[in-house]
Amino acid sequence: MIEDLIPAYAELRNARPAYDQAEMYREGDAPEKFPSSDIQRLLKGGSQDFHVNLAARPVDAVLDRLEIAAVVCEPDEHTATLIEQVWEPNELDIEAPQIHDNALTYGDGYLFVWPSDSSSDTDEHGEPVAHVDGVHVFYNSPLSVRVIYDEENPRLPRLVIKAWCEGVGEDKRTRVNLYYADHFEKWVTKKDAGKKSEDALTGLDFEPFVDDFTDENGHIPNEYGRIPFFHFRTHRPYGRPVHKNAYGPQDALTKLITNQMAASDFAAFPQRYGLLDPGASEDDDLDWGDDTESDPEDRPSQMVAAPGSMWILRNYKSVGQFAPADPDAFLKPQGQFMRLMAATTTTPMRWFDPSGDTPSGESIRADDAPLVKRIGAYQRAFGATWRDALEFAMRILGFDVTVTIQWAPAQTTGDLEYWQAVQAKQDAGVPVRQTLLEAGYTDAQVTGWGFTEDQPNGEGGGFDQGPEPQLDIAPLPEVVPPLPVGGEE
Q1: Beta-sheet pairing, 183-189 with 206-208
Q2: d(Cα 426, Cα 126) in Å, to the nearest integer?
Q3: Do residues 249 and 344 make contact, with C-beta atoms less than 8 angstroms apart?
Q4: Is the pLDDT of residue 468 over 50?
Q5: Are 112 and 229 spatial neighbours (Cβ–Cβ below 8 Å)?
Q6: Taking a C-beta distance cutoff of 8 angstroms, is the pair 170, 39 a contact?
Q7: Mean pLDDT throughout 410-423?
Q8: Which residues of 173-196 are buried (b: 16+ CB within 10 A; e: fewer)?
Q9: Residue 83 DSSP label
Q10: pLDDT confidence band for 447 (50 / 70 / 90)
Q11: How many of the other CB atoms lie within 10 Å of CB of 132?
């Protein structure tokens, strides 16, 4: 399928600049922008040490509440197998938050699932039988991987390309893997193609890459009938960085903060001036030492700022200093651009400006409503990808199961007002089980407490736990008065 290689490789490379830009704003590395080309030429190479990266906050606001609470299988007896043979060996409790972070940052991310370890024995007829003993599940960046969807059915992946470079200089070679539903292909650029740019590569510059896993054509059969890459995305067909609308406000904030720091030098060390007296003599009788070559205006001042000192100025009519820039000229626009960032990214303002009074729980939930709705959409999208990947991992291990992803609640539920509302729902007739599930507790937790699907209000219909238990308290010992001194019992 060499004819697929070049178009897929071009599409992968064309997508990289947008991903690089998303990463730059996530990490706070975006340079200061200059609307005036003349100012840009004057200030090119200036310091970039005063960046305050608020563009990352929309990603953090979603990521902090995008937490997997539990992963369960149906039938339930396979849940332990999923945890012990897939989740824990691949450290997915550590990897999952990073996968979500990258998918939110770039808009896209990929999970690769494939057998890791295998063994073999013989059946009753003495024929060899292979067994899969483990599964690899690991993340792949959209900078090196891209899925190519079918033009007729945009939900159907036609192939996946993964490309990376090996070696440096003239020894640099580009590796490309193509993944199809029925086989994989490994390619590498020829040695004489190392001097070519990526844009100039053609199909003639590639040759099959052969290793211990491929045949002589660089092919590997895929017996599972599907591409083993799973696409995390914030939008379809390809994702959109969660913080993309923060790029512009962040550029404005970077410029305002950098200019404010430059103006602070003038506030600490005001720029001064001196007006010469036109009628005074220009002779300078100050003792400048042995320096007879330079002009007095170019020499360092001999006047020292110290308590009790006195300066004698000759030939100056008056002196003064220029007023530094008003800090409000920078602070007020900063607040405006933070509000614009909050509005364009649908992120509560307190994520950018935490000053002010602490809002109540009900106020926070009202303020968080648009954010919670977006998080719910990401939970559905990412949950579908997790479910598909984990079901495929279990299929590799020989189990046909349905996987359910349970998420922690996206809204805050820890305040008194919220639980009073939960109690009001229960008083109105909503089953206790339903209210606890809505509060973010997992199905296993709620069932363990006795609120099952058959008995949603628990045994006995509610929280009634029966009569108050009687405490078995030992009687106090009888107090015996002390004997008088010298007396007998």
Answers
A1: antiparallel
A2: 63
A3: yes
A4: no
A5: yes
A6: no
A7: 74
A8: ebbbbbbbeeebbbbbbeeebbee
A9: I
A10: confident
A11: 15
The number of C-alpha atoms within 13 Å of 363 and in the hemisphere containing its C-beta is 6
Tens-digit pLDDT profile for residues 386-403: 999 999 999 999 999 999
pLDDT band (50, 70, 90) for residue 471: very low
Phi then psi for residue 221, to 5 deg, are -70, 145
- Amino acid at the residue 359: P
Supply the pLDDT for residue 216: 94
Give strand ranges (E) for 32-172.
68-74, 108-115, 118-122, 128-132, 135-140, 145-149, 157-166
- Nearest Cα to 112, choosing from 43, 177, 37, 68? 177
For residue 263, the model assigns a pLDDT of: 77
173 token code pair: 């070679």
The DSSP secondary structure of 227-290, one letter per residue, reads -SEEEEESSSSS---TTGGGHHHHHHHHHHHHHHHHHHHHHHS--EEEEE-TTS-----S--TT
- Look at the block and give the residue holding tokens 């339930």: 76
Bond from prior residue into 237 cis (ω within 30 degrees of 0): yes
**Model confidence at 288: pLDDT above 70:** no
